[in-house]
Design a protein that fits this description.
198 residues; alpha/beta; 5-stranded parallel beta sheet; 6 helices; 5 strands; 20% strand
């Protein structure tokens, strides 16, 4: 009973203030507070929807997926060798390396260095005259999805480990942009493989 009386009294005061002080600024809370309430309700509905989508039925078992690991190669260095060794160690169904080059001459040069170092993992080259790393890599991954249907692709990116925050501005910028784009691809995982300078 007391709660009802309090609620009525509050409503009366609200109506009086809204009527007499509307043009003096009382309209702000009258408009803003309901909008905030609606915002919070929509956020709550979103969380409820996500929670329902993430529910796992007791009988659910995800299907076994074939995994392809793609190691991105910019230059051939010790970090790439470490990434290739890691890729082979997780025993995927397919493992390969890909490099984006400006033209056939660069592709031939990279393939020559690859064979000189007797690397077991096959290297595929993508020619992009403008060296558009992100677009060329995404196009190559699309081709892989057509080649091996119903699998998961893990993109392994060798990245230089830097100790100071300002060094991030000098290194790994292309990898950062590519990782951001890869996050929106279905059935694609992204793994960074840090390597340190001795």
């Amino acid at each position: 009973m007391l709660n009802a009386i309090g609620a009525v009294a509050t409503l009366v005061v609200l109506l009086i203030v809204a009527a007499t002080k509307f043009t003096s600024g009382a309209w702000v809370p009258i408009v803003v507070i309901p909008l905030i309430v609606l915002l919070f309700k929509s956020i709550h509905r979103h969380y409820v929807k996500v929670a329902a989508a993430l529910e796992v039925p007791p009988e659910y078992r995800p299907p076994r997926r074939r995994n392809t690991v793609v190691v991105l190669v910019g230059q051939l260095h010790a970090g790439v060798h470490e990434a290739l060794a890691y890729a082979e160690s997780i025993a995927p169904e397919h493992v390969l390396a890909v490099t984006v080059v400006a033209g056939p001459a660069d592709a031939e040069k990279m393939q020559k260095r690859w064979s000189e170092q007797a690397i077991r993992v096959p290297l595929e080259t993508v020619i992009s005259p403008a060296l558009e790393l992100t677009e060329a890599t995404l196009g190559f991954l699309d081709e892989l999805e057509r080649r091996w249907v119903d699998g998961t692709i893990t993109v392994l990116i060798p990245e230089l480990f830097v100790e100071h925050w300002w060094q991030h501005l000098l290194h790994n910028q292309s990898a950062l942009i590519l990782k951001a784009r890869l996050l929106f691809r279905e059935r694609t995982a992204v793994t960074s493989m840090p390597y340190r300078l001795e």
